[in-house]
Amino acid sequence: MKIVVCVKYVPDAQSERTFQPDHTTERASVDGLLSELDEYAVEEALAIADDGDDVEITILTMGPDQATAAIKKSLQMGAHEGVHVNDAAIAGSDAIATSRVLAAAIDTIGDVDLVLTGLGSTDGTMSVVPAMLAERLGLPQVTFASELTLDGETVRIRRDGDVASETIEASLPAVVSVTDQINEPRYPSFKGIMAAKKKPVQTWTLADLGVEPAEVGLGASWTSVVSVEQRPPRSQGEVVTDEGQGGQALADFLISRKFA
User: Fold this and answer.
1) Distance (Å, whole) CA 131 – CA 143
2) Where are the domains of the chain?
3) Rounded distance, CA 84 to CA 114, Å?
4) Tell me, what DSSP letter sits at residue 89?
5) For each of the chain's 260 residues, which pLDDT tens digit applies?
6) What superfamily does domain 2-220 belong to in CATH?
7) Three-point CA angle 185, 101, 17, nearest 5°
8) Alpha-carbon gap, residue 27 to 117, rounded angstroms
9) Does residue 68 contact residue 60 with C-beta atoms inside 8 Å?
10) In sequence order, which residues have a C-beta less than 8 Å from that of residue 254 and are 6 or more positions away?
11) CA nearest neighbour of 223 among 94, 129, 97
12) Cα(135)–Cα(94) distance, integer angstroms
């Protein structure tokens, strides 16, 4: 079985996020890492490999030079190889362009049985790329999996909603996105860290994938950020001394904020 796990290199949530003059996220000057939500997809692929023989796990990412860190962490966890799509024309790509590049890369990898993704990226938080990816690949999608089971040529997931849990099945090959409820990602061991240094990582450009630069990047995006501004510093809250009017003061506050 060949599994491709799509991962993303994102700015560290603890760092101060800024924007470039074209209103795209500044990534070069901040620390980055493998998106936390993608670790669950990597772990699920590793769990499948642990339970069966002849499972090959390829980590796929797109982004600048630093994005290799996301592949490196995944390989240290136990994945077998990596593919890094690195092309300057990709910068500023929206979800639609991202799905175009990832789909082309998966087609180039070839003979993929299962595509795994996380719930969403911690920088974009849109959770739409898995569906777009499935559409471009012509594959069924089963998303938001809290549990995943493989049974021959069938993938079965449990999706937990607010009022019910659903069991959904699809025939392989398929695209599956997983939630942070599905497992507990492992930490890379010393042995895994050392082994990762010898694992192959291929670097592909858009030309290698047959994707035209005009199809991706900021200029091809269907949406754009018009303006950005710093969030104002949090001000100290108002302290009300309750001398019999505390309830009325609270009600007035809620009404002024249109909560009541």
Assistant:
1) 8
2) 2-220
3) 18
4) G
5) 999 999 999 988 777 777 778 877 777 667 889 999 999 999 999 999 998 779 999 999 999 999 999 999 999 999 999 999 999 999 999 999 999 999 999 999 999 999 999 998 888 778 899 999 999 999 999 999 999 999 999 999 999 988 999 999 999 999 999 999 999 999 999 999 999 999 999 999 999 999 999 999 999 988 888 888 887 888 887 787 888 888 888 888 889 888 86
6) HUPs (3.40.50.620)
7) 60
8) 22
9) no
10) 260
11) 94
12) 16
Task: Enumerate residues 6+ apart whose C-beta is below 8 A from 172.
Answer: 113, 114, 150, 153, 154, 155
The two structure tokens encoding residue 233: 């510093």
Element (H, E) at 130: helix 129-137
C-alpha 71/C-alpha 81 separation (Å) is: 8
Residue found under tokens 């409820």 = 181
Judge contact between 172 and 155, C-beta under 8 A. yes
Amino acid at 34: L
DSSP character string of 205-233: -HHHHT--GGGSSGGG-S-------PPPP
Are residues 117 and 133 in contact, defined by beta-carbon separation less than 8 angstroms? yes
